[in-house]
Structure formats: structure tokens, C-alpha cells
Design goal:
By secondary structure, the protein is of the alpha+beta class. The protein has two domains: 179 residues, Beta Polymerase, domain 2; 158 residues, Orthogonal Bundle (cca-adding enzyme, domain 2), CATH 1.10.3090.10. It has 24 helices and twelve strands. The strands form three sheets. The chain has an eight-stranded mixed sheet. Strands 7-8 form a two-stranded antiparallel sheet. Strands 11-12 form a two-stranded parallel sheet. A hairpin with a 5-residue loop joins strand 7 and strand 8. The site of adenosine-5'-triphosphate has 12 residues, from helix 9.
Length: 448
């Protein structure tokens, strides 16, 4: 019932009448440099074609190649079924229970091979749509043309055949790429209702590629932003990680805010950015992340989320201290509070959440510069991340720069110099009593 009703309301993307499909572009126009294509992707398409199937490199890889970039990964689309792909490549395995795709392995590289997918509106397939229009399941094989229509943006629906060196374009993706316009395929509202994550992708890809969002593609986003609430949290988390690790994190965060999308992603980003210290802190953290990504250095998601949520921890920490609690116990409670509310809502995977809490938990230990404690802190497994975090706190004005400078000097000094650098234990008796009382707060910086 619902399906046939939706079939009438939702029109699948249709090309303009009279347009020959697809448009085919030769190397003279697309200018793809064959050297930028991985050997594994070439072997996959050639192998499938030799076995009598159609096979193309698709999606982000073609887009990036046409922009002169070297793609990080390659996807291949084919008319062969997963079983047929398996038969062509000895070293391959079928993954996914619903829509099965094949991983073809060449040394360390894996190529993801997908059979052309059809429309979720087709009668015979395994498809299901919610009343909001969100596609719950669309495990339908289809033609190449249908496969193109169910992709998100015109520039992501290009097919490159490395053998003939042709780019096939079903949705005017090539002219859009040349004009640097990011345009959704079909009716924007329908496509966002089908999958609200496309709104996040629009923001992320336009920031990452430096492309303008087409007006009609952009217009419905603020009104439909609330639909993100329906999307399972782990999917949002994956997309958010891509967004913050794109090398354009700050632009993406600002664009999320501009389009009202941050409520579904980082509900309190607004609040954080409105406090001068919070804004400075997040800015510095994101700039740092962007710099590392652009230099191809590793970036830790745990560190990133520790930064994004820090000012909430800080607010709760101050609240508990104001109610008379000792700093370490207050921080412990604040961490728990923020983890239980925000972090769980964001579906931060456990391995990241544990490291994130450790980074926060180490912070008070940087303020203790007497006795054996600084030596023990230096030995801690997460000292480096803890120190980098401290540095951001100092640079944002939350703590004096002198503290970070002291730790930097201490970490690089020899043992004798370190001993000389220690501060006097000002109130030893009182301290001993206090340590006993706060011993319950020890798990704050767990030795993992
Ligand atoms: P990136 O460079 O960040 O990997 P990408 O466009 O390659 O960008 P992927 O998530 O790797 O992003 O997706 C590969 C392709 O799958 C896209 O280019 C697009 O054609 C299609 N795709 C991905 N997500 C969606 C979606 N939510 N709706 C429709 N098509 C999608
Ligand atoms: Mg990709």
C-alpha cells in the first residue's frame, strides 16, 4: 500500500527527453591520467571485461581523477552478479548480508566490486521504504542507468572504463564538474527523505572539493535537517568522522551550522562555539587536524572527539567544583556525565571512547609538578595525546602557556635537570590526607 502510494508520489530521477544516454567523453575531455589509477582497479575491470561483463570504475574515484587528484580508494561497478565476480577472481570474498558486494584482493589493496543496483521503487526487488520516505532496504540489482540514478550527486555518478578510456555520464556530471557545482540527482527533497545522510554528504563534499552547492540542492536542507534524527547513530558517526577528517574540518563544521545540520550531529556545537574560549579551542583543534590530514600524518578520532566535547566536560567540571567537590572527583563525574549523554548519542565506538576519557582524565595530572608525579605521568601510555591536549587548552587561553612550556622542557630534559625543575611540594601533610580521601578518583587515568 505505502509502497504503491510512494511510487506515485516519488518520481525517480529521469533524464531530459531526447538526451542520448549516456553521454560518452573521451580522454580529450576528461583528461584522466591513467597513471593515477591503481593496478588493482585496472586488473579488476580488465578481468571482468575479459570474462564478458561490463565493468567500470565509479563514484568518488572518477570524480577525483577528473579533478586531477589521486583517489584513496577505487570502487568498481559491474553487471556481473556477486557469484560471477567471485568466479573471475580467485582471491575475492562476498561480504554484506543484504546487498552483497565483493572484495577483490590484490596484495594489500582491496577493490570493492558492486553489481549495478536498481531502484527501490521497482516491484520485484527486496525493498522497503518508511513513511517518511526513508529507504530502509533496497537490495535490488538493476541496469547501469538505474545504478546511476540512485547515486547521490551528478559528479558521483560517472563511470570510467580504463580499457576504452571513456567516461560515461548519465546525469550531466561532467559539465557540473567543470562548473564546480555539486548537484543532487533527481528531486532534492525526495532524495534527502530517502536518505538524510545525503545532506551531510552535500556539506562535506562541497567543503572538501571546494565546490558550490547548487541552489535547489541546498535550499531544502535547513528545513529537512531534523530528518537526521531518524538515521541510526553509527551511520552518522561514520559520516561525521569522514567530515572531520576530510582536511577541511573547520569549513565543514561552519557549513553544518549554517545549514542547521549540527543539531543532528553534534547537538551542542552551537553552545560550544558561542563561548569565546570554546570557539577558540574548537578552531585550534580543527585547524590542527586539517594540517595533519593534509600532511598525511595520522589523526586520532579519539583525540578529535575529546576536543569536540571538551567544553561540555569543562562546564560540568566547573559545575561540580562549584558545588564543593574536589577537582579530581568533579572531573570524574563530569566525564561520566558527558560520556553518558553526548558520547553515547553519537555512537562513538568503545575503543575511541575509552581513549577519549583517558585524555580528559590525564588533564589534572599536568597541574601537579612536584615529587614523583611528573615522572609517572611521562611514562603514561597516553602522555603524548594528553600533552597535545594540554597544549590546546593553553593556546586557547584556558590555562597559562607557561604550563605547556614547562612540560615540553621537562619531557626533553635529562634526569638531573628534571629534578631541578620540580616545584616544591607546598603542603605535604595536607596533600597526604587529601590523597587518601580522593583515592576513589584514581581510575580517572587508567593505566590501559
Ligand atoms: P569520498 O571521497 O569521501 O570517499 P565518495 O563520493 O567516494 O567520497 P563514498 O562513501 O566512498 O563517497 O561512496 C562512493 C559512491 O557511492 C559515491 O560517489 C556515490 O556514487 C555513492 N554513494 C555513497 N553514499 C551515497 C548515498 N548516501 N546515496 C547515494 N549514493 C551514495
Ligand atoms: Mg570513496
Amino acid at each position: 500500500m505505502i509502497k504503491s502510494l510512494l511510487q506515485r508520489i516519488l518520481k525517480p530521477a529521469k533524464p531530459k527527453a531526447g538526451t542520448p544516454l549516456p553521454q560518452k567523453y573521451s580522454r580529450r575531455t576528461h583528461r584522466i591520467d591513467p597513471h593515477k589509477i591503481s593496478q588493482a582497479a585496472l586488473k579488476t575491470t580488465e578481468g571482468l571485461q575479459r570474462a564478458g561483463f561490463r565493468a567500470f570504475i565509479v563514484g568518488g574515484a572518477v570524480r577525483d581523477l577528473m579533478l586531477g587528484k589521486t583517489p584513496k580508494d577505487f570502487d568498481v561497478a559491474t553487471d556481473a552478479t556477486p557469484e560471477q565476480v567471485r568466479q573471475v577472481f580467485r582471491r575475492s570474498r562476498i561480504i554484506g548480508r543484504r546487498f552483497r558486494i565483493v572484495h577483490v584482493l590484490f596484495g594489500a589493496e582491496t577493490i570493492e566490486v558492486t553489481t549495478f543496483r536498481g531502484s527501490h521503487l521497482s516491484e520485484d526487488g527486496d525493498a522497503q521504504v518508511a513513511e517518511s520516505g526513508r529507504i530502509l532496504r533496497d537490495n535490488v540489482f538493476g541496469s547501469q542507468e538505474e545504478d546511476a540514478a540512485r547515486r547521490d550527486f551528478t559528479i558521483n555518478a560517472l563511470y570510467y572504463d580504463p580499457v576504452s578510456e571513456e567516461v560515461w555520464d548519465y546525469h550531466q556530471g561532467v559539465p557540473d564538474l567543470q562548473k564546480r557545482v555539486l548537484r543532487i540527482i533527481g528531486d532534492p527533497e525526495t532524495r534527502y527523505r530517502e536518505d538524510p545522510v545525503r545532506m551531510l554528504r552535500a556539506v562535506r563534499l562541497s567543503a572538501k572539493l571546494g565546490m558550490k552547492l547548487d541552489r535547489a540542492t541546498e535550499a531544502p536542507i535547513p528545513r529537512l535537517a531534523g530528518l537526521l534524527q531518524e538515521v541510526p547513530a553509527p551511520r552518522i558517526f561514520d559520516e561525521m568522522l569522514k567530515l572531520f577528517l576530510s582536511g577541511h574540518a573547520m569549513e565543514s563544521a561552519l557549513a553544518l551550522r549554517k545549514h542547521g545540520l549540527h543539531h543532528g550531529v553534534l547537538p551542542l556545537l552551537d553552545v560550544v562555539l558561542e563561548q569565546p574560549l570554546g570557539e577558540r579551542f574548537v578552531n585550534l583543534a580543527l585547524q590542527n587536524t586539517d594540517r595533519r590530514v593534509l600532511q598525511d600524518k595520522p589523526v586520532s578520532p579519539a583525540f578529535l572527539f575529546a576536543c569536540l566535547l571538551w567544553h561540555e566536560v569543562l562546564a560540568a567540571w566547573q559545575k561540580y567544583q562549584a558545588s564543593g567537590m574536589r577537582p579530581v572527583s568533579a572531573l570524574h563525574l563530569a566525564i561520566r556525565e558527558v560520556s553518558e549523554t553526548q558520547a553515547d548519542k553519537l555512537a562513538i565506538p568503545r575503543r575511541y571512547a575509552v581513549a577519549m576519557k583517558e585524555i580528559w582524565g590525564l588533564q589534572p595530572r599536568f597541574e601537579q609538578r612536584a615529587g614523583q608525579r611528573p615522572f609517572r605521568l611521562l611514562e603514561h601510555e597516553r602522555y603524548r595525546a594528553g600533552y597535545d591536549f594540554l597544549l590546546l587548552r593553553c593556546e586557547s587561553g584556558e590555562l597559562p602557556m607557561e604550563l605547556a612550556a614547562w612540560w615540553d622542557a621537562f619531557a626533553h630534559a635529562d634526569t638531573e635537570t628534571r629534578k631541578r625543575m620540580l616545584q616544591p611540594d607546598s603542603a605535604p601533610k595536607k596533600r597526604r590526607r587529601r590523597r587518601k580521601k580522593t583515592s576513589t578518583a584514581q581510575p580517572l587515568a587508567p593505566q590501559a
